[in-house]
Amino acid sequence: MNVVEKIKVSIVGASGYAGGELLRLLLNHPNVEINQLTCQQNQGKRVSMIHPNLRKRFEGVFVDKSELSETDFLFLATPHGIMNKELPQYQKLAKKIVDLSADYRLNNADDYKKWYKFEHANPELLKESVYGIPELHREEIKKASLVAGPGCGATTMIFSLWPLREFTEKAIIDLKVGSSASGAAFSMASHHPERTNAVRPYSPFLHRHSAEAEQETGIKVDVTAHAIQMVRGILGTTHLTLKEKLSEKDVWQKFREAYSDEQFVRIVKDREGVYRLPEPKIVAGTNFVDIGFTIDPRSGRVIVFTAIDNLCRGSAGQGIQSMNLMMGFEESLGLNDLGLHPV
Amino acid sequence: MNVVEKIKVSIVGASGYAGGELLRLLLNHPNVEINQLTCQQNQGKRVSMIHPNLRKRFEGVFVDKSELSETDFLFLATPHGIMNKELPQYQKLAKKIVDLSADYRLNNADDYKKWYKFEHANPELLKESVYGIPELHREEIKKASLVAGPGCGATTMIFSLWPLREFTEKAIIDLKVGSSASGAAFSMASHHPERTNAVRPYSPFLHRHSAEAEQETGIKVDVTAHAIQMVRGILGTTHLTLKEKLSEKDVWQKFREAYSDEQFVRIVKDREGVYRLPEPKIVAGTNFVDIGFTIDPRSGRVIVFTAIDNLCRGSAGQGIQSMNLMMGFEESLGLNDLGLHPV
Amino acid sequence: MNVVEKIKVSIVGASGYAGGELLRLLLNHPNVEINQLTCQQNQGKRVSMIHPNLRKRFEGVFVDKSELSETDFLFLATPHGIMNKELPQYQKLAKKIVDLSADYRLNNADDYKKWYKFEHANPELLKESVYGIPELHREEIKKASLVAGPGCGATTMIFSLWPLREFTEKAIIDLKVGSSASGAAFSMASHHPERTNAVRPYSPFLHRHSAEAEQETGIKVDVTAHAIQMVRGILGTTHLTLKEKLSEKDVWQKFREAYSDEQFVRIVKDREGVYRLPEPKIVAGTNFVDIGFTIDPRSGRVIVFTAIDNLCRGSAGQGIQSMNLMMGFEESLGLNDLGLHPV
Amino acid sequence: MNVVEKIKVSIVGASGYAGGELLRLLLNHPNVEINQLTCQQNQGKRVSMIHPNLRKRFEGVFVDKSELSETDFLFLATPHGIMNKELPQYQKLAKKIVDLSADYRLNNADDYKKWYKFEHANPELLKESVYGIPELHREEIKKASLVAGPGCGATTMIFSLWPLREFTEKAIIDLKVGSSASGAAFSMASHHPERTNAVRPYSPFLHRHSAEAEQETGIKVDVTAHAIQMVRGILGTTHLTLKEKLSEKDVWQKFREAYSDEQFVRIVKDREGVYRLPEPKIVAGTNFVDIGFTIDPRSGRVIVFTAIDNLCRGSAGQGIQSMNLMMGFEESLGLNDLGLHPV
Prior knowledge:
Chain A is of the alpha/beta class. Helices cover 31% and strands 20% of the residues of chain A. Chain B binds chain C through residues 1-2, 17, 20, 24, 27-28, 49-57, 180, 184, 231-232, 263, 266, 268, 270, 272-275, 279, 282, 284-285, 288, 290, 336-343, and chain C through 1-2, 17, 20, 24, 27-28, 49-57, 180, 184, 231-232, 263, 266, 268, 270, 272-275, 279, 282, 284-285, 288, 290, 336-343.
């Protein structure tokens, strides 16, 4: 039997939710061997104490970032604002890197300063990094040494806007977001008795994601995000007023052109059935983007519904999809999980 | 001590969710005595078997509608389409009626046919009935013999649109709705394993509610409704593009003008705190309308957030508020419950 | 009209969940006027920022405990271990006190030390304080100046054991508990993504509650508590192996003897229907104890199911019930709310 | 490269929850090709309309059972009581069968009649069928042509009892069960507004599962089952009074002897951490049995906690584990998914 030569993959910031999701997926990736996992708070602790789903499959411990050695591939899963400064030192350890933080998503330093309120420490790397949505930048990603993993909200917005981007200049996007999108740091707002059953408007965070969406699509987006009772998942409801009225057939065609060849994008638009439009719970744990639309017959408004798992397609899964391209692997390797139903 | 002379109140269709909510509230109303409760499916059954929250406080049984006798006040809580035809026979039993169904909400028969797809059987009563939002029609309700209880979605929309109605002609409204809004009839879509964790776009039902909102405010509304993981409650997110740019101070003033004197409307807009904007869980079980807003500094878009309990303010509570006015009682009688926190 | 002379009530530790629940109930209590509310962390802050359900009904602020003045009645709602030492100074401010913490629940200092691991600072007050379950200690509470509000878990256990206490010496109790029972202090375990969907065995805390149950019933209880997906509520499942086999009729009789005359205790045991046995969601926000049982025909084991709201009957509501008795009011004053359905 | 010759697998009753779970897993099984899927209600319908998680990966349709042809392996996933009669006709179509219904779990016809209240139509097949827990019956399963998939509750109980089966004669088991365990048929009890937030004692169904547990372990079990707010998952809390007192070290040793070599059984018992004991959400979608214990120092009672996914390990996953053994495949083939965290 042919033996696959596995690449060694390390993760910086492996105790967070994105780091845990990377691990979950990489442990079942046929071409990957886990190398080192760093975490500043939990060095020496068993990884499966933090990520209990990995028990018995992975019993390694977290190491300090100073212990990190050279590796074939490196994922950076630290909070925003760290890799901005520190990335160059990690480039010495790995020739290929996916950074899941926000630090290398925007193409120029001015935009970065405008949205993140401070100067970027390595503006020249903003030009080098490729925005990591394979469906938009597949060829560039294949050649990239640095890929910036898009934001979960931005991923939702961009897939929603892409097929009709030539027909509109402006969109109103209403996001419904699960609690894991705010990360593993706890607060009063995330305290279970307060956060449970919330339908809570919030906004600052996702304004930033709109910067990515505007960069990639050229459409001005007004975003309103709501925290709802869900752990994983985002549903984006995008209201599009088109420059010219399109028939349902026309819109179908644009969606098909955009996505029919994409194995991870599913157009969900049935005439009947409980799940005739996308829902985040159906894609939880998967790399799928489920996307559907309806047209308001009176106003002509097109409403696009897009569902992803914020931790998988919105972070770790999409990052691995990029890694597969960067390493010359089949794009879907390690990403074939189907979601659960019922759930 | 002064003895209050209580009025006798009957409910037609008392086994549904609106009927149960009426009972819960009326049992603690100081001026009300429950008279008869009808239900076609459950006649002879103990009411508290269907509404288990009423145990030990109310141990009556459901009767057939043919047994209904004259009463001081009558609530109609049957499904849409029944009172359209049958209302006149109930007018013989009570001089004052609140109908919680959709049948008398629209002012003219043409609109009714357009939205409900069949002829109204008693079009002349559409003129007689008063649309039951006390904050808009207080004086008419006081004199009315027939009040039409507004839809829960419509109530949310109208309160959202009312303060700025002169500054806009069009609104996009995104509703997040709990499962009780679909009533007590079960189906595959409401089966717990399927409905739980849903973030499910749906629309037909609430298009109808937009007819009420357009009638009352004159604003054209494009509504998109989503079923989310919640039993009681609606959050309406209303995106308003204004004809002229208003400052935050101006918008505040319009909201204050509209609602400061209203004991059941709370403007919720804080600078900090977990609950700085409205949330449905905070108003569950109450007659409050919690309403707040933000202004997108870039686009000038005003986003209004409105939270109600669909069964209380969106149906039974608002109906009792109308009853209080129709009977000359203090408007808030029996409606002083505060919501729970945490919940 | 007769004017009720209202008593002035203050709350020490009013920003926690028990404090908020006291406020919610007392604001609708006909004989009570809120006096002062203390909180060390939030002095000067508007109370409704912490308890958003109270907006527009109560707009006072928290004061420092040093500002507390004499009052007709005082509730203590501080964390366990504080009133142990500080109670005497509060007794100077009010002649009648209900302490909701664990500090005065046990009758003797040895038990206290055994279960709480440190010496009680005011052991003589343990003799003076009355254990605040009115259904067990009504006459003592009427005369008491200090009542100790029972633990929520203990309340569940005691009501479960009381009717058959003569027929058993030992019980296994399995508790299912909502997240609000752990209070307003947040941690990783209460972080929404971690706590949501939990069915999490935990125990230390409720071992302590078993001390109260053993003191009051004389039955040795082995408790296992589980945190489940719920904010408010406890269901206790009590497995009783009886000394002699009892028929269903016998057990019914014992339950009726114990509870038929109690307005807040409802025996819930139907032959059919969705809610034929007690469920915590039906009693949320109420002072009810819903209690039912089944008998395993093969083993003779009696299984008792008891549902309460941990914050209302398990803390604030039961405290107000005691206050009513201590002040000579009708026992149910301010406690007539019915729970919500559906919810 | 070596080509795997795939076996053709058909499923009878593929539209239910167990059928859907089989499909989800088999579509990623390297040695399996889906052959035919029957469903009486949905013949001709696209399978992914019923199981929306399978979209784009599987676009076949359901066929009528009369169309079923010979196949390498057959799963039966029909409701209880059907295969009792019909199994022999399916044995003509496949030499190896796993029946997930209850019909062939009990070893003799008398037990069947006692628990299921009617005569078994094929009592001789009860002797032939092997009870499908591989950890207990691995060698028999390898040789079996008919395996009976255990009940989800029974699986939970048996794993809980197995390590200490020699030290006890009797157990009290408290189950917390998700809504998918009741299947895809909807009713008032499963209507989302009624079932949500339930902590609902129910029993009849699981008494039947106790028959399996008693058959396999020889221990008499008193089971009380509760429906809680969860879609997938069971937590079993087993209270064991031992014949002789065992130390924690002794119990650890018994658990290790029973399970250390089993790749799908994880002993979960940590000193610290949020997930120091088993929880069903951590195993959702997996074939793992997570099992832990605590010892009450006062009473010596051992409490065993066991978490499984009722649809995966409690039905489809365990069925595939048996299929792997029956077909001579590696036992874990197609079952390597890790659960999600957070979730």
